[in-house]
Amino acid sequence: MRPRFHTLPKFVKVVLTARRQLGDVQTAEFFGGWDPKSIQPDDAENMKDMSMLLELRLKSSDLLPEVELKAAVNILARKSKVLGS
Predict the structure, then answer these.
(1) Among 72, 35, 40, 78, which Cα is nearest to 56's?
(2) For 35-58, what is each residue's pLDDT tens digit?
(3) What is the spatial distance between Cα 67 and Cα 50, in angstroms, rounded to a whole number?
(4) Residue 33: C-alpha distances to residues 26, 27, 40, 74 (Å)
(5) 62 to 17, 67, 79: CA distances (angstroms)
(6) Other CB atoms within 10 A of residue 46 CB
(7) What is the pTM (predicted TM-score) of this model?
(8) Cα distances (Å, whole numbers) of residue 24 to 15, 28, 58
(9) Short-list 36, 45, 39, 33, CA closest to 14
(10) Which residues lie below 8 Å from residue 33, measured CB to CB, with a gap of 6+?
(11) Cα→Cα distances 31→8, 9, 38, Å
């Protein structure tokens, strides 16, 4: 099956997929002239964003004392990296 990206309206700028590989299909052919970008869940910038979000959520929840926040964020971020792989 060949997707019909070229039939999408011009205002569509992002198409997301969970597929890691396209198999035997050439990427350029599959996307029909689009320039696909890949976002990896364990990239440093994504992990930084995840840590910031976790810290904000934990702070606002009052579940942990302030002195334990950094350790909890590191543990959760590490676990999310492992689970996301």
Answers:
(1) 72
(2) 777 777 778 888 888 888 888 988
(3) 19
(4) 11, 9, 22, 41
(5) 36, 12, 21
(6) 15
(7) 0.52
(8) 20, 12, 44
(9) 36
(10) 5, 6
(11) 12, 15, 13
